[in-house]
Every structure is written in C-alpha cells, then in structure tokens.
Specification:
By secondary structure, the chain is an alpha/beta fold. The protein contains five helices and five strands, in the order E-H-E-H-E-H-E-H-E-H. It has one domain: Response regulator (Rossmann fold, 3-Layer(aba) Sandwich), CATH 3.40.50. Helix content is 44%, strand content 20%.
Length: 121
C-alpha cells in the first residue's frame, strides 16, 4: 500500500485529532489541517497532498462542498467527505462533487480505514 500525505479539514478539534490518529496508525502522514475553507485552499495551494478528508459544515461562509468544487477544478486529487449532515439537499450537492467516499459522523474507524485503503491501493 502506498503511503499517502493526507490533509484534514475539520472544525471540531476532537474529531480532527481522532482522524489524525487513525491516519497515523495506518502509516500515512497528516501533512496539515484546517478548520475552514480559506486556510485549506491556501495550504493546499502550497503543499503536496494525496488525499483530503473534509467535513461538509465548516467555520466561515464556504463549506466542504465549496472546497470539493475547488479541489475538482484546481487540484484534481481525491477527497473524502465525513459529515453529520442529513439534509437531502446538502447531501445531493455533496454527491454531485463525486467524492471518493462519504462517511457519516461519528466516523466508523473501519470504514475510514477501508476508504483510505482504496485510494492508497
């Protein structure tokens, strides 16, 4: 399995920490984190990233769907949504961005491992 450099976009510090632990235990590297769209876009423009894991609801005006659209148009790298959103409209918008996986919160550790492993294969 290929070692990935993974960027986390999550505004809840405890969830970000849990994701970091799962990723590190898999042998991948968390190359950065952000709690909002603006910081994520700035960081992603200067880093070498293999995968982005993002929440849909973020601090600030833009959300994870906006970030996914940015990734699709400018970076062309895989991304995974992890979110507690249940709104059909928001989920439809999220799915239109073609994420590599969509994991409901609380994130199941095994589901996250499997989603990352598919990308690293």
């Amino acid at each position: 399995m290929q070692k990935l450099y993974i960027y986390i976009v999550e505004d809840n510090p405890l969830i970000a920490l849990a994701l970091r632990e799962i990723i590190s235990n898999m042998g991948h590297t968390v190359c950065g984190t952000a709690s909002n769209y603006t910081k994520a876009v700035t960081d992603l423009g200067t880093m070498s990233v293999d995968l982005v894991i993002t929440d849909i609801m973020l601090q600030g005006k833009e959300n994870g769907i906006d970030l996914a659209q940015y990734i699709n148009h400018h970076l062309h790298i895989p991304f995974i949504f992890q979110s507690s959103v249940t709104s059909a409209d928001i989920l439809t918008q999220a799915n239109q961005t073609c994420p590599n996986a969509f994991l409901p919160k609380p994130v199941n550790k095994l589901a996250m491992i499997e989603a990352i492993a598919k990308i690293a294969a």
